[in-house]
Structures are given as structure tokens and as C-alpha cells.
Amino acid sequence: MKRLRIGWVLAAMTVSGAALAVLWPHARDAGAVLAAQDDPAQLSDIQINTALRNSQKVISDNIEAALAAGDADLANSFVELAREKNIPLASELSQRVSDAVKEENSSSHFATRFANGFMTGNADDAGSLSGTVAGDLFVFGDIRDVVREGKHLVMGEDTDQLVLGLATAGLAVTAATYVSVGGAAPVRAGLTLVKDARKVGRLGEGLTEWAGRSAREVVDTPLLQNAVASGSVMRPGETVSAIRAAFHAEKAGALVRLAKDVGRVSEKAGARGALDTLRIAEGPEDVARAARLAETKGGQTRAILKMLGRGALLLAAGAFDLSLWVFGALLALFGFLASIKATTERATQSWLNHKKARRLRKQMAPLSSPAMTTAGVTG
Asked: What share of the chain is helix, strand, coil (3-state, %, to 5)?
């Protein structure tokens, strides 16, 4: 019976030990993720390291895909990530990326993209972003967008209130940029990028809803309708003054903070990095986290966002699910330690009982010897 009890506790120790061995790696990773949930750079590092442990080929595969899509900037971002993680790349692949980046940054390519951004107001790389920002700094771009969307508003047609609000805010920020001799340039670039992302459908749904509400709050619609009805791109001075009068600067704080964070991402990760952020962001908090990530990771940011998506900015799995791994491992550890304690106690008790019984047998041995038995009979 005693052996049976010891057998049960040994079985419990084995089972709990096996469970701990299985749960521990998951619990360790979950604990690290939970500890890093407020630090996007550390959070993304943990997840990237986990992904690369499973397969380092994911880096070269993403580089090939980026080159095939004509996105040299993204391919180069993966090269930087590979360098940071000490992952070797084929020299031929590295050379192809280098050639593609050189071509994309050539003077002729930059000039073409600059002109396209200036005229259309659409940006997806450094050249076109420079063009769109230049157009907005000369108020041409913002006036064009305000007049176009304002005309829709006057005519009772579908109006993109977000583009309208961003362009109106942009005119006010442009004035501040001139006054501060470029000090507000990151905000100006951020507003342009948000506006461009909206135009080409690369603004996340959640962020679109939030920015749309914020944009509507900063514009006096009736006053803007009057400004647009009498305004024109050909009369920028009069038009800008009238439009600015419809802008409530005191209500634009949240929108300006968003633009500032987008500008910070653009400065560290490039225009496409900012557009990637705007596509996955569900609110201004996500963009602020992306800005912190970009300030730490720089050129690696696009590769990280490509691999992890929104999970690079916050917990992809719920904190409750991650906590379950930690709780399960702690429970298995408790069971293992309790089983060791019970096994030790029962084994010790069994050994003491065995020793006591052995000593008792030794004491009883003389009494049961033949000589003692005969003496007893004779007496």
C-alpha cells in the first residue's frame, strides 16, 4: 500500500514535470511579450526573433517579393533587418537590392516622381512626397483639394470631409511653417501624407473614422461653403484668407498631433513607411506607437511592419490569452514542486519505517533464538 502511494506521487511528479517542459517555452515568450507590451521596439524584436527561429528564409523570400513588386525601399528595409539580426544573404541578392535602390534614387527618377507628386498630390515615395509637400507649402495643393471638395459640398454632392478638413488644417499649418522657418515642417508633411493616404485608399478604417470626426470639428461648414463659392485656385491670396477663417485652430490639437507622429515616422522610415503605418493603424495611438518604433528601428521599420502588421505596435494576442500560458506554467511548476515534496516526504517516511522495523527485528532476534526458547521451557 505504501509503495502504491509513492507510485502515485511519482506519477504526479512525472506528469507535472512533462507539462512544465511543454508549457515553459510558451510561458517564457508570453511573459516577455507581456513585459514589452508598452515598448513597440522591444515587442517587435521578440516577435521577429520568434519568427526567425522558425525560418530565416522568410527574409530572403520577402526581399524577392519586394523586388518583384518594384519596391526597392521595402527590399532594402529587409536587408537592414537581416544585417541587424546577423542573417547572411546571398551576395547576388544583396547586389540586386543595391542596384534597385540606386535606380530608385537616381536624379531622373526623383525628378519624375517629384513632378507627379506636385501635380497630382499623391505620394508613395520620397520623390513624390517632396512634390506633394512642395505643392502644399506653396498652398497650391491644399487650395486645389479644398476647392474641389468644397465645390462638391456646395453642389450637395458626395464630399470627402476628411480630405477637406486635412487640406483646411494644412493651410493653417503652412502659415505656421513659414513663420517658424520650417519648424512645423514635420507636421506639414504628416498632414500631406494622411491626406494622400486617404486619396489612394491606404488609410486604415479605424483611423479614417477617427480622423473624419476630428476633421469635421475643425471646419465651419457654412463659412467654408461661402469661401469656396467665391474662391479659386487662380486667386490664392483671397481664397486662403477666406478658407482660414473657416478653420477652428483650437479644435485641431488631436489632428495636429496625429500629423506630427506621421511626420516622425516619415523622417525615420521614409514616406512609404508612414503610408504603411497609416494603412494598418486603427487610431492615433497606433501611429504614436509606430513613431516610437521608427525612432528606434529606422530603416528596418517597413520590414517589421510587413512581417508583423499591427502586431508590431501592440499585442496581437490578447493579454488574457498570454496570461493563461504563464498561469499554466506556474500551475505546472507548483504541481511539480508539490510532487517532489510529497515524494521526498513519503520516501523519507518509508525509509524511517524500514529502519525502525529493522532495528526492532534486531532487538527481537535474541528473544526468539533457540537457546532462549530452551531456557524458557526448562525454567
From this structure: 85, 0, 15
Q: Which of 211, 205, 209 minimizes the C-alpha distance to 190?
A: 211
The pLDDT score that the predictor gives to residue 329 is: 62
Measured between alpha carbons, how far apart are the two ends of the chain, in Å?
43
Q: Is the dihedral of CA 191, 192, 196, 202 positive or negative?
A: negative
- Give dist(CA 93, CA 75) in Å, integer: 10
Residue 75: CB atoms within 10 A of its CB come to: 27
Q: Which residues, listed in sequence order, are joined to residue 260 by a DSSP beta bridge?
A: none
Radius of gyration of the chain (CA): 35
* Residue 33 near residue 322 (C-beta atoms within 8 A): yes
User: 301-308 vs 40-54: helix axis angle to the nearest 10?
Assistant: 70
pLDDT at residue 74, rounded to an integer = 94
With CA atoms as reference, report the closest residue to 210 among 176, 246, 261.
261
**31-82: pLDDT as tens digits:** 566 665 678 888 888 889 888 988 889 999 999 999 999 899 999 999 999 9
Position of cell 506556474?
A: 330
Closest CA to 152 of 161, 142, 143, 139: 161
Q: Give the Å distances, CA to CA, from 195 to 30, 160, 172, 200, 259.
A: 38, 10, 15, 9, 10
Distances (CA, A) of 188 to 183, 199, 301, 364: 10, 17, 22, 101
Cα angle 295-50-24, degrees, rounded to a multiple of 5: 125
Spatial contact of 37 and 315, defined as CB atoms under 8 Å apart: yes
- Under 8 Å between Cβ of 16 and 339: yes
Other beta carbons within 10 angstroms of residue 330's beta carbon come to 13
Is 353's pLDDT higher than 80? no
The answer to whether the CB of 195 falls within 8 A of the CB of 207 is no
How far apart (Å, rounded) are the C-alpha atoms in residues 151 and 239? 13
**For residue 156, how many other CB atoms are within 10 A of its CB?**
7
Q: Name the percent of the chain lying above pLDDT 90.
A: 21
